[in-house]
Structures are given as C-alpha cells and as structure tokens.
Amino acid sequence: MNGSECAALRLNGYPCKRPESTTANDFFSDVLSVPGNTGGNPSGSVVTAATVDKVPGLNTMGVSMSRIDYAPWGANPPHTHPGASELLLVLEGSLDVGFITTTGKFVGRTVCKGEMFVFPRGLVHFQRNNNGSPAAAISAFNSQLPGTQKWAEALYTALPPVPADVLARALDVNDCMVEPCVI
Amino acid sequence: MNGSECAALRLNGYPCKRPESTTANDFFSDVLSVPGNTGGNPSGSVVTAATVDKVPGLNTMGVSMSRIDYAPWGANPPHTHPGASELLLVLEGSLDVGFITTTGKFVGRTVCKGEMFVFPRGLVHFQRNNNGSPAAAISAFNSQLPGTQKWAEALYTALPPVPADVLARALDVNDCMVEPCVI
Amino acid sequence: MNGSECAALRLNGYPCKRPESTTANDFFSDVLSVPGNTGGNPSGSVVTAATVDKVPGLNTMGVSMSRIDYAPWGANPPHTHPGASELLLVLEGSLDVGFITTTGKFVGRTVCKGEMFVFPRGLVHFQRNNNGSPAAAISAFNSQLPGTQKWAEALYTALPPVPADVLARALDVNDCMVEPCVI
Amino acid sequence: MNGSECAALRLNGYPCKRPESTTANDFFSDVLSVPGNTGGNPSGSVVTAATVDKVPGLNTMGVSMSRIDYAPWGANPPHTHPGASELLLVLEGSLDVGFITTTGKFVGRTVCKGEMFVFPRGLVHFQRNNNGSPAAAISAFNSQLPGTQKWAEALYTALPPVPADVLARALDVNDCMVEPCVI
Amino acid sequence: MNGSECAALRLNGYPCKRPESTTANDFFSDVLSVPGNTGGNPSGSVVTAATVDKVPGLNTMGVSMSRIDYAPWGANPPHTHPGASELLLVLEGSLDVGFITTTGKFVGRTVCKGEMFVFPRGLVHFQRNNNGSPAAAISAFNSQLPGTQKWAEALYTALPPVPADVLARALDVNDCMVEPCVI
Amino acid sequence: MNGSECAALRLNGYPCKRPESTTANDFFSDVLSVPGNTGGNPSGSVVTAATVDKVPGLNTMGVSMSRIDYAPWGANPPHTHPGASELLLVLEGSLDVGFITTTGKFVGRTVCKGEMFVFPRGLVHFQRNNNGSPAAAISAFNSQLPGTQKWAEALYTALPPVPADVLARALDVNDCMVEPCVI
Fold first, then answer.
1. How far is CA C48 from CA A179, C55, F87, F114, F138, in A?
2. Is A14 in CB contact (< 8 Å) with chain C?
3. What is the pLDDT of residues C124-152, one digit of tens each?
4. Which domains does chain F have, with CATH numbers?
5. Are D13 and B2 within 8 A, CB to CB?
6. Contact assessment for residue F60 and residue F16, using Cβ atoms and an 8 Å cutoff
7. ipTM higher than threshold 0.90
8. Where is each Cupin type-1 domain found (chains A, B, C, D, E, F) (predicted)?
9. Do A140 and E87 touch (CB under 8 A)?
10. pTM assigned to the model
11. Is E11–B10 a contact, with Cβ atoms under 8 angstroms apart?
C-alpha cells in the first residue's frame, strides 16, 4: 500500500502497520480453506468470512470474500449487508437465489456450479440449496467488513430482546403467532 | 449548484436542468406540509418522503427528509434503508425506537417531543407510538433517495412471491406458522 | 454500527466506542428540544446544531440536523457550509430564503410552515423571517459536522483580524466604508 | 481511461468519448499559456481556469488547475470553492494569502515565488499582491470544476438582486452603508 | 436496486434498466463457468472477467470477479488495475504471488488451494503457477470494471507504438536490448 | 479546516492538529522552490513532491503537487500513481508526453511551455524532454499522497528481488535479455 493509506498504527480500529514492518502474511489467509460444518446450524448453511478482522492487509482495501457451505436443502436465510454489494459464484451444487427490490419486486432464479448472481447493495437476499447434495459458494463484497443482518435472527434473538408487542405489531401479525417463534 | 454537478439534462435518471434554466421551485416542496392519513395503514403509521423524485433540486445533493405520522399505538415496523443513515426528530408525542447491530445488540429507548435518535446506515430499526395520542416525526437522510425495505412486507408481499418453503426455512419457523401470515 | 465503521476508541477526533460498550444514549439527544433565545443575537436568529460533537452516535454516519429560531423580522445571514448540502423545513412562520449559484444567479422564494427548500452544497444562502411573528425551522445536512461560515462575521471578526486594506480591496469598496463595520 | 469511467457519450453533462474515439488533444490544453489581462479588473487580478469545460479529458478525473495573474497591489478577493481544496504555488512575485476557519481563526502569511499555500476545502480565502510588481500563481484543485463564489460579487451583483434589506440585516450593518456598495 | 442508483436508461455508458423492466438474468452470468484455454497464451495464463460489460446488473454495484486459469508453470505477468483492490482465492494448484509497494518493497509468498492473497489498489502484482500442474484462481475487485494494464504488453504492444528511444531511456537500458523485445 | 476533518492528533498516520493549535506554517511549504538536480539521475529527471508528508496542512485535503525537472533529453520514465489523476503544466521547455489506455491505445503528443496534459488515474504515462535544453513542469494530483511506481525500477530494484524467472516469463522475454538489465 502507499503510505497515505496505511501509515498509522491503527486505522478504523484495525492494525495498520507502517510499510517497513509489513509482511506477506498480513496479506495472506487460509481462513476459507476449510468448508464450514453445516451440521450445527438449523438453517443448514455456514458462512465463513475473510474480512479485515481476519486478514489485516484488507484494511482500507474496500474488498472481502465469504465462503458459504450449504447442507442438502440448506438455506442462507434472508439477510442484508448494510451498504455492501455482493457477487456470488457457485462452487458446487445448485442454488435458488434472489433479492427483493425497494419497490417490492422479487428477482431470483436458479444458479448452478460456475454461475454467478448479483445482490445489490443493502437489499434483502437469500440462497437455498435446491437439492439433496451439499453445495458451496464464494461471494465477493465491495467492503472490507460488510457485516450481516439475518432478518429473523436479528429480530428474534437480539439482546436485550425486542419487545414482543413491537414484533407483533411490527410484523403485522397477531401475538399468538409470534410468541412461539423461539429459535 | 455548480456546473459540474448538474449540467446534464438528466443525471441518475432524474431531471437535471442547466443552471440557466433552474428556478426556485425546483428547490422547493410542500410535500411534507400535510400529515399522512394513518387511518388506511394496518401498522398505524404513514411515511411521507421528500426525496429527489419529489424535489428535483435534491438531485446530486445527497440529502433528503421524511415525515412520519403515527396513529395512537401505531408503529413504523422494522425496516432498513440500503446504505443511508437516518436522524429522527420527534415533532409530536412520544415514541419507543431502536435498532439492532450486526452483532445482535438491541439499542433503543423512548424519545419524546423535541428529542432525536440516530439509526446507523443499513441497520434494521423501528419506531412505535407508545401511547394513545397521535405522534409525528421528521427524519433526515444522507441520501437523496434512501429507499426503504419494510421487512415483513418485503418478504411476504413481494411479487412474484418468495416461495413459502423458502420463507419457512429462512425464518427458522415451521410452515404452519408462516402460512397464515397474510397481510 | 458495524465494526468496520466504529471499532476504534476515537475516529475523526470524536469518541467511537466499541459495539459492546455502545448505549442507546450515544444515539440520543435532546439538544434541539429548546428554542434558541433570539434576544441576544443582533441578526435576530439562533442556530442550534445537533452534530457529532453533541451526539456521539452520529460519528461516521454522515448526517446531522440544526434547529434555527428567528425573532420577528430576524435573519440567518448569508453563510456557507463547506461541502455540505442542506434541506430546510419550516416549522413555524414564514421565511424568505435563497442561495446564489457560482454563475451569479439568485435563486429564492418565500417558504411557509410545512414547506421546504434546498441549499446546494457549498453555496452561499440565507433565510429571513418576513413578518412580525417568531419563526422556526429544521435543517438536514449530509455531514455529521457541516461547519458554518457566516460571511460578514468570518471577514470582520476573524482573529487575528484580516487586514483592513485587504477587506477594502477585496470587497471592492473604499476604505471609509469598511472601517466602521464593527460588529 | 478505462471503460467504466468514460464509456458514455456524455457524463456529468460533458462530452465523454468512447476509448476508440479519444484523441491526445482531448487531454491537452493551452488555456493557461497566456497571462490574464489584469487591466480590466477593479480588484486587480484575473483567474484563468483549466477545468473540464475547457479540457474534455478532465471529465471524471477529479483534478484541475487555475492560473491567477495579479496587477501590482492587486487582489484575488475573498471567495470560496464549494467543496474543493486548493494548493497554490507562486510563479512570480510575492503574495499575502490566508483563509478563515469555521471557528473564526485567520490563518495567513506571505508566500513568495516558488512557495506554496493550502486553502482547505470550502473555506473563505484570498490572495493579495503585496508590492508594486506583477505576480502570478498556479493553483491545483481536487475537482474537475471547482466553481467559485467571490463573496462581495456573489452578494452584490447577483441577478435578480438580493434584496437590499436582506443584505443590510444579513451583514449586520445599517442600510446607509450598504446602499452605495455598487460595483 | 433503488431508483436512485439505476433509474436511467444508461449510466456510466452501460445499460441501466428501470426497476420495472429488470429481470433476474440481468444479475446472472455463466461467464466464469468454463476454464480459460491457456494453450493460446505465451505467458501461460488466461483471465476471464465477470465485469459490468458482461453482467449488466453489476452497474453501480462497485464489485466484480475474475477467473484466472494457469498452464503448468504459467504466469499472470506483472500488471496493475487502475484504482481497484484485488483479493485472490486459489481454486486449484499452488501459486507464487506478490506485489511491490510504492517504496520498492516486494511482498510475496506461495499461496495454495483454498488460500488467499490481497493485492492493494493500484500496485503492480503477479501470480505464477509454481509447478507442473494446472492451477486456477478467483479474484474479487471493488470495482465493477477494474481494467488491467499488463506492463510489458502495455509498453511494447501499444498502438500507435511508444517510440523505441522512449522505451529505452525510460527503462534505463540501452537500445540494443530493447529492440528485440518483440512479443 | 472544520473540526470534523482534522480534530484528531493524528489522522491517516500524519499529524492532525486541533484547530486551536494550527499555524499558517502548517499550510505553507517552500519544498518546490528549488529545481531538482538532474545530474544524479540516469533517466535525466528529478521529481520533487509537495505531498502530505512534507506539508502537514494537506492532510485530508485530497490534493498535492509535484515539480519535475528534466535534463536535456531527460525522461520521467513510464510510471503509475495508484488511483490518482494528474494534470501537468509545462513551466519551461518542451516535452513529449503520453499515456496508454487499458485497451492498449497510446495517447500522446508534444506539450510546450504553458501547455497542459492530463494523465488519467492509474494509467501508465511518461514525459520526455524532446530537445537539448533543460525543461520543468508542475503537476497537480487529486490525492494528498499519490505515490509512484516507476515500472522498470519497481520490477528490477525491488527488495527482496523479484525472482529472475518471474521477470523473464512475466515480461515475455528470454532470460538472457533480462539478466543484464542491471540499473
């Protein structure tokens, strides 16, 4: 990097070495080399992120990657990345994917091994393994730390909890429906 | 504006007049002068936006406002603005408001007339009128067209519909719970 | 916020707490809840800013608000915000407002209660209460700390003073006119 | 340039040729090769701009230059560039220069041939030839079309005119002082 | 996308459909599904880009991907992407990779299947297959059209040609060395 | 500057004083006042940079300048600035200049005293004194620290050295040609 970007000891809260102390390992990572274990996840998918908190050399670079592993019929449930766009490439298997625009249009299709799909910045989107074999994908983001909000998880497992009546009214459903939605 | 920003006839898809043909009315709007009619909205709130599609002079300016009117006990349900931050000022009444961070922390409190609350860019947030009188608020955005995704509405009323089993698996709930969630 | 934006203890010189230590009060403010006292201001207006130095949660959010209170016939004199756009909403009363383009065109009109006007980024603009009743307005900015340069004040009350002959020549007026302009 | 930046026929309202039709002359200009004639300017300076409206190849490049020629004792009066920073290099002679911060601090000094001074983005600043010989300078801007507002000129020669009482009240001076300020 | 980003028919010179006419296929691509044929390339590598000119839905999204296939011992020779950062993930095989900082430091190492390396924005970098088996990698960019300048190719095969004496002097080598460097 | 931009003690790794401790000298520099000594440079040119590491007041300002002095027939060899655009103005003499696009087009011409040429961001470019008299130029950049990669120097003098076979394969030339290219 040039000195303008990374001369401070810390930048954005992450280590930022001076050029003379930078090493190749700061720009290297093996964090995506092992498939995520989808066994422990009720939705049937595991997202492994290669972001600035794992790869120091990404600091100020504005790019990162994630690997998503899907159990048979597993899903990466509806979620948003605040402000980051995503470009997903299927490594193995076949996925049903889609996003919803701010005007309420659902834009989706099936994406097979070697194929790609764009999820525009900030819009809710999902992927679902559409068959009984495992699947895997790689995603590129135009942010070094996109962050993720899984919608159900964000609302139902926040701490402290979002008040139940807020959820009920907020979701336009009646209380008896929401109460049992414990995850 | 200077010529660099707005010399084209259209920019970002919105009219962009040359300086010599600009009039004061391009920078004026009365769109927020009338309270929204909360009677017709099941969630009990109406959002009126003063964005670039209503105020041509906002084109390339990176700022806009919305007015939110709340029926007694009405809510502006959980939603996101893709990439825009929001600063809300209560004009009338008292609201319970909050947002959820990407690490699952709920950050919220009561905000009364004349008080303000920040909703960081891209994070899910809501407001709820916490009593039996009408309420109103003004919000500022650092975008000329922030866009909005109301979460329940985005998932349950998208066209074409998001497949029911996707919603069920995605939300980690069982099908019988989701099916009746018709709005 | 996500960790990328606000993980450092300080960012831009303002406190930036780690997510785990953030509280709702960091995103809350009552600084605009009390009208400014216009009695003590010769121009007849008081600007109260809700910016990052008052509301820590605005750090990195790129948005802020101000409240302007006007005495009868009071004015918010010609000023600029370096690099920030402004969208003003009249809360009470009626204002004559306007800005001047870089090509020397004056763009202005009367704006009444509930109506709005855009002041494009960096251009000189003003508001004037056009009658004998108090007035008030709320402004949104696409900056967490827009800063303000009141033109007369900037030139005539800077410390150390701008040399008198500079002002005279600079303003294309003769010395005898400028000397008495003590505020 | 790469296709992303300049593939459209027009971008930002300026011609943007496709790569295959670009010529070297699009990136060339002799507009600064002749000194400005300071004889016709009451303030004693002439600014010649090399901006995107003169040099098509600057479109999307985010940089431009100006040449300023000063008559003996001539001044480039207080002005702002909306949103652009400036770095001035004295080619000939000696200038008194300065800017005023948003907190009212005057920051200035003498700058001689071969020396430089920074004018931070959006802040009011000026230069004055401090002796009886002609002077000249080159300024760099981080904008392809910075735009300029000369403060006195903007207020007193805008069309349509800014109302006299607005100027008087706005400048915190009494009417009899402002009326004769005809340029 | 929201209307602000993509309401125009063309933006940046690429098609930009209105939301109502967008289809899922605009956001889909199979351009990376077939390995590049490294047989026809003297350097022993083929780069296949999934950029906005191939995937219309990437317009305004600020992200893209490339697939690089390497023959045994093949190399992706030293090159730059003007302004874009790159994050490379090895899909198959083992690569020697590296970049050079603006202070002349070479930062490189071996990267194996499943491992990643960061190439900071604008810096010269390369990859080389370090053994006799084919290799492949995926790269993410924070630009929808990063563009590439292969250094040798840019200098030696530009049209019209860069004058030979310029190359010779420029490269600090004598003419007899440069003349035969025909590719 | 306003407090938002420069309130921290250090920003981007460079000193950033609080407004109250800023002095005029932070915004001043004489670093370009002395011509570079071209005698000690084999390529026959010397670049003197006025960037944030020399002029503290440039921090966060996004602009800088360089002075280039050319010996008779001297050249500023092919190089890139990662992400910054450049606008060059010839102060003395006559230069042959040019850049190469990402599509392999050479765009260049002769530029004489008082004339200018644009080098688009990130593209390789050069200047050559086309006669037997000294020459000089001033360049403006839209970055406070553009950084430079001289292509031959970057590849052949990096430390640790780039492996010879990488250079050979990378440059598509045979080893015997590259070996003697010692600088």
1. 44, 13, 42, 49, 45
2. yes
3. 999 999 999 999 999 999 999 999 999 88
4. 23-145 (2.60.120.10), 148-183 (no CATH)
5. no
6. yes
7. no
8. 30-179
9. yes
10. 0.90
11. no
